[in-house]
Amino acid sequence: MIPAAFEYARASSVEEASKLLKTFGEDAKVLAGGHSLIPLMRLRLAQPKALVDINGIKDLDYIKEDGSKLRFGALTRHVTIENSAVVKQKLPILAEVASEIGDNQVRNMGTIGGVAAHADAAGDYPTIALMLDAEIVTNQRTIAAKDFFKDLFTTPLAADEIVTELVFPVANGPHKYIKFRRRLFDWAIVGAAAQKMNGGWRIGLTNVGTTPVRATAVEEALHKGAKPEEAAQHASDGLNPSGDLRASPEYKKHLARVLTKRAIEQAG
Amino acid sequence: MAVTTMIGAKIHRREDPRLITGRGRYVDDMKLNGMLHVGFVRSPYGHARIRSIDVTDAAKAPGVVAVYTARDFEGLLQGEMPVTISFVPDKKQPIGWAFIAKDEARYHGEIVAVVLAREKSQAADATALVSVDFEPLPAVVDLDKAVESKSPTAHTGIPDNVAWDMTVGAGDVDAAFADADVVVKQRILQQRLFPIAMEGRAVLVEYVPFDNRLTMWTSSQVPHWVRLCLTLAMGIPESNIRIVAPDVGGGFGSKIHIYPEEYLAAAASKLSGRPIKWTEGRSENLQATHHGRAQIFDIEIAAKKDGTLLGYKVRQYVDTGAYVSVFSSFQCSAYAIAEGAYDLKNVKFQTVGILTNTTPTDAYRGAGRPEATHAIERGIDLVAREIGMDPVEIRRKNFSKFPHSNYLGFAYDTGDYDKALTKALATVGYDAFRQQQKELRAKGRYLGIGLSTWIEVCGFGPSAVTAANEPLALVESSSVRLHPTGSATVYVGTSPHGQGHATTFAQIAADTLGLPYDAIDVRTSDTGDTPFGYGTYGSRSLHVGGSAVLMSCRKVVDKARKLAAHMLEASEEDVAFDQGRFYVKGSPDKAKTMGEVAFAAHRDNLPEGMEHGLEAVTYYDPPDLSWPFGTHICVVEVDPETGAVDLQRYVAIDDCGNVINPMIVEGQVQGGVAQGIAQALFEEVIHDAETGQLRTGTLLDYSIPGTGEIPVIECDRTITPSTTNPLGAKGIGEAGTIAASPAVINAICDALSPLGIKHVDMPASPDRLWKQIQEARAHANGSKEAHQ
Fold it and tell me: Are the Cβ atoms of B765 and A246 closer than 8 angstroms?
């Protein structure tokens, strides 16, 4: 398929990109790694009037240690996160998540900022961001992850607002992310994350609703001393996932429970 | 006797260096001056009346040269696509595939208008501007409902949806069932699949009016067939049509016939006076290239308590889609091997073709034989389970012994089914596995092992066998021409789409002619210089086409021997030929090489009455079919909590007779098994049951497995040469696909047998298995409670 015609502009700074977005108006899209946007355009499910390519912005591709935080430039590629010694040491769950995204081609191009801004409920980083109380920094403000992923493909980003950075807390205790899928390069049918942090557990779920989910009921049950298997029974509390060709709502809820149990048990 | 050197050698394919370095030449790589791109406007509905089509906006769009609808092609294209006999001589409603919808669209993706534009992107944009006023009609999707008398029909105005209804059989089936100790019945679904090739279809066509000449480059398995069909539809003499299939990136049956797009592109070139190009996009490919399988099998097997199979009843529903595609009923070849590797003489097989509002179905790798194999291999396991017999033992008890003729009277060439089974069991370590399985079951783990002792019929086809079933005898041709300095060009009628003909046929010619392998050039796929051939499908090219190469080479050697005798001043009977050298028996030192003889054949001083040149043509008609066989064994572990299947081992022991190139054979098995596993676990085309719209319209929704999902396939073989062709070879192109799906599903059923699960449908996806496990557990709890 061939995308519908669109304007294209390449920005060399965040300011320029923001200005271009303003000029093009509502129907413009930011092009980062392009691995979600371009397939949608090829199928003509997305027909933006203009693309603002931010790949030429030099200072958005970095991983910085900042005290008890890790700062990821929005253009940091999955492959960089996967192989980063700092991430492996300070936030190993994110390196592991990155290593299981798509295939080599996707990991070489896809970016952490792009995944956040796209806000697909099947994305993996958003689950970790929500679970760990990460922050999404834009050219205009800083937004807590819990306020950022508002609905399916929906964020509070304004038309000329660009994600510039994601800020995660350091978390190098026991952890596990289980991404259940039929093929290695698939999106998660359901994903479950567990991270031991500050003496408690953080539990996150992928693709069980319109946004990533933090399973606070499981966290509380564990806090009260429940065994993983008992606590994990709460993983589906309040969930109302939609069914699709790969999984019924019941199966997704069941997977949320099973995978949560396994993630806690296997966390290392 | 000549010592062969190339036949049997595991050499690399000569095609590969070019292809893997990006130097392949596919249709999409080609351009002609003044060429226009075609965009097809397609129905978004499964079934709809076309009230009107407004092309005004599209015609005014940038770059658009013409917009055509059905009436523009009237008079240019005659009739509809042909429907071949293919195993079903009497079809009730052989409604051939329409070139373009006129008043009614009958599947999602059917062409309703044609746009020509200077740029490909302009054609894509303009197709969206063609305004079609569709009135949606009830769509026929479900096969059980489609045969009910009150069902809506897939075509307005036809009496019902039955395309064919035929029963074949032999023996006394009723008596067999009356005598049985056990009868097992099972409905087995053969889900609809996309036969996805890496390269979709593509056409570039130029019609030159002044000399009424048409040249088409097309991604096809069957260039000569394409030419034949275009002649019939367009009235251009066959001699004025040239079809070329350049490098073709796979087909798996999907390019076994000509398509509406090829006809319409050819006619559009004639209408517009410009060369026309079309390259299928993947979404288009999923809608408009024929689909495969889409069948339901209802089987019943009668057996004795000791495991002896007595009788077999099958009803095969074939979802033909909206039209009866060219080789659609080839899928009824299932009846030719219905009873598989077992000696079963009381068989009744009914096949019913059913029209629905979906993309037409046709051959997909195996075409009828994977379906038949899945049915009987599942069936025999169900019998074994019912009587508490090991699946190995019941197979051994019922294996056909040679010489053997099946229930329809087909005499199998050769076979030794126990040999392949024994080797496969040893490779996998069957007894040790059973022990391990027992131990792990006690720990709550669900491991299973599945067998598939498959057979196949291929080598289509001997005219004696196929004459009744096909309008033309499916022979294959070759022309072998030696050049003065001792190299040779081999022209063949069959046409590859990834099989490595150029390598395999050169191996045969090199040995037979006694020339170096590198001195043999194999030319295929251009009707302008190759003799007539039927193309590549049904695992036939080596058996039929390879034999044609061998026969032509032998004819050349016969003539060369006469000339060599003349040169050696000896009588022909006294001249030996070995390793490319002719010499008088007893005097090997004084020899003439084939190269020297070829040179002499182009000079003066030929024997009295001999024509110049060294050249021969063969149309090879094999005396009979060939029947490959083997045993595949799969080991799985099922995660009862998630329904996920872990493929732990896959062993494939195949017998395709004599092997020309072991690497190519292994490649065919590996790829075939991967596609069989894909059907067993991953792939399924889904149409909306009400509207007929395609729900799995992208490869995001349709799960083709990748390398990460396919285990290492442990390949080996037994060798039982065929007696029905001079190479002693049998086909191997479809074997993996034929064998694999029951091996995987039998393994899953074995794994889940402690839960009382007897049958699992395909694809055995985790959600489906989880649901079945839940139901089985609920049922077991229910039974327990009932007993308490």
Answer: yes
CA-to-CA dists, residue A41 to A35, A117, B281, angstroms: 10, 17, 14
Look at residue B650 in the predicted model and tell me its pLDDT: 98
Residues of B127-156 as b/e, b for ≥16 C-beta within 10 angstroms?
bebbebebeebebbbbbeebbeeebebbbe
pLDDT at B2 over 70: no
- Confidence check: pLDDT of A96 > 80: yes
Domain CATH number, residue A30: 3.30.43.10
CA nearest to A186 within chain B: B700
Instruction: Kindly state whether residue A1 falls inside one of the protein's structural domains.
Output: no
CA distance linking residue B745 with residue B724, whole number of Å: 33
Q: Which amino acid is located at B141 in the chain?
A: V
What's the gap in Å between the CA of B52 and the closest CA on chain A?
25
Q: Which pLDDT belongs to residue B472?
A: 73
B395-436 pLDDT per residue, tens: 999 999 999 999 999 999 999 999 999 999 999 999 999 999
CA separation for the pair B509, B641 (Å, rounded): 57
Q: Is B766 on the interface with A (CB under 8 A)?
A: yes
Residue B607: how many other CB atoms lie within 10 Å: 11
Interface test with chain A among B642, B646, B773, by most A beta carbons within 10 Å: B642
Give the pLDDT score at B1. Answer: 38
Bridge partners, residue B169, by sequence: B348
Query: Residue A2 falls within a domain, yes or no?
Result: no
- Residues forming a β-bridge with B523: B491
Residues of A in contact with B200 (CB under 8 A): none
Q: Is A25 within the bounds of a domain?
A: yes
**Which residue, chain included where needed, has tokens 């399924």?**
B684
Mean pLDDT of B541-552: 96
**Contact with chain B for residue A45, Cβ under 8 A:** no
B559: left (phi > 0), else alpha (psi -120 to 50), else beta?
A: alpha
- Identify the burial level of B541 via C-beta atoms within 10 angstroms of its C-beta, where 0-12 means exposed, 13-18 middle and 19 or more buried: buried
- Is residue A43 less than 8 Å (CB to CB) from chain B? yes
Nearest Cα residue to B727 out of B540, B457, B474, B566: B540
Omega prior to B763 cis, within 30 of 0: yes
* Residue entry with tokens 């253009």: A75
What is the number of CB-based contacts under 8 A between chain A and chain B? 57
* Residue B641 contacts A where some CB pair is shorter than 8 Å: yes
- Interface ipTM: 0.95
- In this prediction, residue B462 carries a pLDDT of 87
Rounded to whole angstroms, the Cα distance separating B181 from A242 reads 48
What's the mean per-residue pLDDT of chain B? 96
Place of tokens 């072998």: B480
Q: How far away is chain A from the Cα of B682, in angstroms, using its nearest Cα?
A: 8
Write the CA distances from B381 to A34, B13, B388, B479, B747, integer angstroms: 49, 39, 10, 48, 10
Model pLDDT, residue A26: 84
Same structural domain, A165 and A220:
no
CATH number for position A254: 3.30.390.50
Check CB contact of B695 with chain A, cutoff 8 Å. Answer: yes
- Order of all β-strands in the sheet with B645-655: B446-452, B629-638, B645-655, B713-717
pLDDT in tens, B71-124: 999 999 999 999 999 999 999 999 999 999 999 999 999 999 999 999 999 999
Residue A241's domain comprises 175-266
Which residues of A, range 162-181, sit inside 8 Å of B by Cβ?
A: 180
The answer to whether the Cβ–Cβ distance between A183 and B686 falls below 8 Å is no
Residue B788: the pLDDT is: 55
The verdict on residue A132 lying in a domain is yes
Q: How many residues does chain A have?
A: 268
Q: Which helix (H) or strand (E) holds B116?
A: strand B111-117
The SS3 assignment for A66 reads strand
